Amino acid sequence: MGELLRIDHVSYNYHSLEGETPALADVSLHVNDGEFLAIVGPSGCGKSTLLSLIAGLINPDTGGIYINDKDIKSSGKNIGYMLQKDHLLEWRSTLRNLTLGLEIQHKLTENSYVLINDMLTTYGLVTFKDAKPSELSGGMRQRAALIRTLLLEPDILLLDEPFSALDYQTRIEVSDDIWGIIRKEKKTAILITHDISEPIYTKIFIKTLFYNIHHFLSIAYNNKKI
Ligand SMILES: Nc1ncnc2c1ncn2[C@@H]1O[C@H](COP(=O)(O)OP(=O)(O)OP(=O)(O)O)[C@@H](O)[C@H]1O
Ligand SMILES: [Mg+2]
């Protein structure tokens, strides 16, 4: 299991008219191919900023982010980013929400529909494929959002607090579901949470990676290939 992603001494500050907000200071970590990493930390410690940096939406002030030793922008790798809110479009059916990313990338083919149908069946959504998002439960919506992200065949999957909108009971069920899906699809994934119990439900170990005066992050690694 080789190294896939390396974050090397990355710092990032937000700038506004009011001044500068330090978000991340000197963060280094790596993720191996096929590994599942959970990042745990309190609100404001820089978790979403870290994912936005990995997704290439913002650039580090110092340090670098590499995939297979290449800068993320030139690595040619696909990064899937699943946000806390599922962003399913109410005027589209479940099926047409799933095809959206492929449509935008002009990659929707007959084969895609076969694959989508398989995934809808595997993940218990096939009878809801013509339903509108408002007719789905919270857990179903999260599964639909994950399938939509997976259809774009990401090399790395980024999940920003994907369960936080769910009640406690549903969160336990859905986090187990989502964990199962990621393991089945053999994805390298980074999950962000501020709920320390979440990665425990997904059976991964936690260790504190770094601490500084303003912020801290704890990092949980699974110790075996998934
Ligand atoms: N667009 C922005 N402009 C200015 N400051 C920002 C911006 N986004 C985040 N910040 C600041 O950067 C720091 C880190 O924010 P970030 O959103 O990464 O935290 P987080 O760990 O994801 O928090 P949460 O758990 O609440 O989602 C915070 O102090 C926040 O106020
Ligand atoms: Mg956040």
Q: Topology, pairings included?
A:
Layout: E1 3-16, E2 19-32, E3 36-40, H1 47-54, E4 62-67, E5 70-71, E6 79-82, H2 94-98, H3 100-104, H4 110-122, H5 138-150, E7 156-160, H6 168-184, E8 188-193, H7 197-201, E9 205-211, E10 216-221
Parallel strand pairs: 3-8, 6-7, 7-8
Antiparallel strand pairs: 1-2, 1-4, 3-10, 4-5, 9-10
This protein binds adenosine-5'-triphosphate and magnesium ion (MG).
Strand content: 25-35%
| Secondary structure tally, helices | 7
Overall radius of gyration:
18 Å
Bound molecules: adenosine-5'-triphosphate, magnesium ion
The dominant shape is globular
CATH superfamily: P-loop containing nucleotide triphosphate hydrolases
Provide the CATH architecture: 3-Layer(aba) Sandwich
* Uncertain spans: 207-215, 222-226
| Number of β-strand runs | 10
Intertermini distance: 10 Å
Question: What is the averaged pLDDT score?
Answer: 82
Under CATH, the topology is which?
Rossmann fold
Structural class: alpha/beta
- Helix coverage percent: 25-40%
Strand ordering within the main sheet: 6-7-8-3-10-9
Number of domains: 1
CATH class: Alpha Beta
Largest sheet: 6 strands, mixed
Succession of helices and strands: EEEHEEEHHHHEHEHEE
Report on the structure:
- The protein has helices at residues 47-54, 94-98, 100-104, 110-122, 138-150, 168-184, 197-201, and strands at residues 3-16, 19-32, 36-40, 62-67, 70-71, 79-82, 156-160, 188-193, 205-211, 216-221.
- By secondary structure, it is of the alpha/beta class.
- It has a single domain (3-221), classed as P-loop containing nucleotide triphosphate hydrolases (Rossmann fold, 3-Layer(aba) Sandwich).
- Strand 1 and strand 2 form a beta hairpin.
- The longest helix is centred in the last third of the chain and has 17 residues, at 168-184.
- The model is unreliable at 207-215 and 222-226 (pLDDT under 50).
